[in-house]
Amino acid sequence: MNATDLTSESRLVEKIIAAIEQSEHRSISFCDFMNMCLYQDGIGYYMKSESKIGKEGDFYTSSSIGPFMGQMLAARFAQYILANYEGILFSITEWGSGTGKLALQILDELQNIYPEVYDKITYDMIEVSPYHQALQREILEAHIHKVRFIDEQSWWQQPPLQHAIIFSNELLDAFPVHLLRKANGCYHKVHVTYENSNSQFIEVLHPILQEDELSSYLKRFQINGAEGHTLEVNLAMDSWIRRIGMKLQTGMLITIDYGDVASELYGAHRHKGTLMCYHQHIAHENPYINIGNQDITAHINFTACIQAGEEAGLTTLTYQTQRQFLIDQGILSKLQDHMMTDPFHPIAKNNRAIRQLLIGDTMSELFKVLIQYKEGD
């Protein structure tokens, strides 16, 4: 960790402590704590000018492992557009577009394999990180006439969208979550305070009011674990999908992330929840260290995603593992026979990347792909 990291971490710690001191109960919800750690202007994890994805960062995404995720998404987009809206102007929006590498893979594939689709699309990119925004402009220079860099507020202010595909890849897992824990027979909301004597953040439990949205969430998914059961509730995710569903008049919403259905996510074997932190490619469970210098994530409740979409008029087309999605889109056809012994030959590297996407423990089954759609009246 360099001096800049230490300075930004100290500043962020000071801001969190100030928020705690100014709060009514001298504590803030874990959701607010996580939000500050990740998104505080200039010093939150996602808002700093540092690499986060790939070898130099803290984690890998599917677009870091060869071009194949982008190619398969491009194929799915093209299939949908050609089957339903051939010749019609179409918009694609990528939420949480990161470095721009996935967009490059998609646009390259559309241009090379589906030029009739490429000619009719515009591509919106929404990314909160100023550092990643700058990278996007560099990496997408060849497609700059197709791309629009747009902020969240401006995107929401657009008229209702017709003929649109909206998608995200590992976006919703980084939305701030509420942390709940069962104590003395009932669930409480985890808050965070600061202990000056030990100079550390500690957790305190606050009751959940009956009229609270969190109480409704527990009832809706029939969550009733053993004493000490800890879980995450991503209310921001539910709200985001509902808003997308209301904004979208005709088209598809594709959500790619790690998670599961509610019955699996909140089962007895998930007693400690799913919250994880990633720092320099090391995963751990302590969000109260490396403040502003590590990613904090939680698994997605895809049952909630499906229900939120239905409430906004979306119909579920498919819900499957990322592995099955890639196979359905033809990734196996990208494998090439070869007799070469050089492990660094492009063919060998591509074959290895495909196997990693299909067999790797962290991506093949853990990641899910949810496709929802809405037809016009």
Kindly state the percentage of residues in helix. 25-40%
Assign the structural class, choosing from mainly alpha, mainly beta, alpha/beta, alpha+beta, or little secondary structure. alpha/beta
Strand content: 15-25%
Separation, N- and C-terminal Cα atoms: 55 Å
User: Strand tally, please?
Assistant: 16
Radius of gyration: 21 Å
User: Which residues form runs of ≥5 with pLDDT under 50?
Assistant: none
Put simply, the count of helices is: 13
Biggest sheet statistics: 8 strands, mixed
Q: What is the molecular shape?
A: globular
Query: What's the helix-strand series?
Result: HEHHEHHEHEHEEEEHEHEHEEEEHEHHE
Please, what is the average pLDDT? 90
Fold and architecture overview:
The protein is built from 13 helices and 16 strands. The strands form three sheets. Strands 2, 3, 4, 5, 10, 14, 15 and 16 form an eight-stranded mixed sheet that branches. Strands 1, 6, 7, 8 and 9 form a five-stranded antiparallel sheet that branches. The protein has a three-stranded antiparallel sheet with strand order 12-11-13. The longest helix is centred in the first third of the chain and has 20 residues.
Architecture blueprint of SSEs:
Layout: H1 3-22, E1 28-29, H2 30-39, H3 68-84, E2 90-95, H4 101-113, H5 115-118, E3 121-126, H6 130-139, E4 147-149, H7 152-156, E5 164-169, E6 178-183, E7 186-195, E8 200-207, H8 213-220, E9 230-233, H9 235-247, E10 251-260, H10 262-265, E11 276-279, E12 282-284, E13 295-297, E14 300-301, H11 302-311, E15 315-321, H12 322-328, H13 346-359, E16 367-374
Parallel strand pairs: 2-3, 2-5, 3-4, 5-10, 10-14
Antiparallel strand pairs: 1-7, 6-7, 6-9, 7-8, 10-16, 11-12, 11-13, 15-16
Helix pairs in contact: 3-4, 9-11
